[in-house]
Design brief:
7-stranded parallel sheet; about 15% strand; globular; 13 strands; alpha/beta; 6-stranded parallel sheet; about 400 residues
């Protein structure tokens, strides 16, 4: 029985954790023994789990990152313990997801992976792997990573560093370590990210684009409750500025009063600061509640300025809800002209026009077409079967 070990910041929690869980479940169905090593937040994984470190070590890693720009270079003892466990398990494939997040030492891990010699698959959910600091760079228009990161303009964003800028050192170290594995396969989850990977120091690595998928049986149409006016939805796990919260405030001013806006994932402080006409809901891990919200929306608006291949676009379409999004990252790749509208970043007037056009029926976009597209394109079993095919190909070489 072949063995698969996945490593991610979370286990069956959050979008990336659920993706790793679904890949693992599918591998188990195909006869693999699957292990899930994670740093924090276990949402009830059905896999063989390995908890890396604990709250104290995560907190100290955060301190080192904050004070020394050492993201991914703390958690030394915890990572050495993980390496010992990997040696005991002897996996045939090691599949990395998000290895940043204050829980893992990538230097220790990659030095071991080079020595171990087995195939490594690395799914990139953002751009951190080939920059000296940041997870995204397009909003700031910084492309130093193509040659050499230095004087980071994004140092105060995640992973925040208060005093030191070690983007040059971090870039060189990542380049040395991440380019050292001859058996590494990079999996960007969007064509957009794949284009940038090919322009980075990872450009010589084998790459295979595999889009994210969702459970289209769970995210499925329910009875659409007819209410007065139209229901506009926004969903995010963290409503930082670049997820478009200020854009929703402006959108509220541009739409008529009978267009009701609901935002999911806000903190109570953010809810208290909302203007009239916007309803805020705290983050929920109850999938049933989220499905109800999707199904009762007329349009999902995703005004994100930084994204890779957002699962909220997939979930909304699976529930029959059209999407309006900015032309950001891989966000536009997830919809068609029959399931949503793409507008240029920051053009809130165009967002408002798109919302009105969908709601008043002046487009060819339908809830039925959204569902059909999701079933054909976003079903997780069809999407993630490509990982199993990749595993089998790698271990047979």
């Amino acid at each position: 029985m072949p063995k698969l070990l996945q490593i991610n910041v979370s286990a069956n929690w959050g979008s990336h954790g659920r993706i790793a869980e679904q890949i693992g479940l599918l591998a188990m169905q195909r006869g693999w023994e699957v292990f899930m090593a994670y740093g924090r937040q276990n949402g009830g994984s059905a896999l063989n789990t390995i908890h890396i470190g604990g709250k104290g070590s995560v907190a100290w890693h955060g301190v080192e990152s904050l004070l020394l720009d050492n993201q991914g270079l703390a958690s030394r003892i915890d990572t050495k313990m993980l390496v010992r466990q990997i040696k005991e398990i002897q996996p045939d494939i090691i599949h990395l997801h998000n290895i940043h997040g204050y829980y893992l030492n990538y230097k220790i891990l990659f030095e071991f992976l080079k020595e171990y010699g087995k195939p490594v698959v690395w799914t990139l959910h953002d751009c951190w792997a080939f920059t000296g600091h940041c997870t995204h760079f397009e909003y700031d228009g910084c492309f130093k990573w193509k040659e050499q990161c230095h004087d980071c303009v994004n140092r105060k964003a995640y992973p925040k560093s208060l005093f030191f800028d070690r983007s040059r050192r971090n870039f060189e170290l990542k380049k040395k370590l991440f380019s050292s594995l001859p058996n590494l396969t990079i999996v960007p989850v969007s064509e957009w990210l794949d284009r940038y990977v090919k322009q980075s120091f990872l450009g010589n690595a084998n790459t295979v684009v595999i889009h994210n998928g969702i459970d289209v049986d769970v995210f499925s149409p329910q009875q659409h409750i007819l209410r007065k006016g139209y229901n506009i939805l926004g969903v995010a796990s963290n409503w930082k500025m670049l997820k478009g919260l200020p854009d929703f405030i402006r959108l509220r001013e541009l739409l008529p009063a009978d267009y009701n806006i609901t935002l999911v994932g806000l903190t109570q402080k953010e809810i208290n600061a909302l203007p009239d006409g916007i309803t805020g809901i705290c983050r929920t891990n109850n999938i049933g509640e989220l499905v109800n919200v999707y199904c009762n929306a007329d349009v999902l608006v995703n005004p994100t300025y930084e994204d890779n291949y957002p699962t909220i676009n997939l979930e909304a379409q699976a529930c029959g809800t059209p999407v309006v999004t900015y032309r950001t990252g891989g966000s536009a790749e997830s919809i068609t002209d029959k399931t949503g509208i793409v507008v240029e970043c920051g053009n809130i007037e165009k967002i408002a026009d798109a919302v009105r056009n969908i709601c008043n029926g002046s487009t060819m976009i339908t809830r039925e077409e959204c569902r059909r597209h999701a079933e054909q394109t976003h079903d997780w079993q069809n999407c993630f079967k490509k990982y199993i095919d990749l595993y089998n190909k790698l271990i047979s070489q």
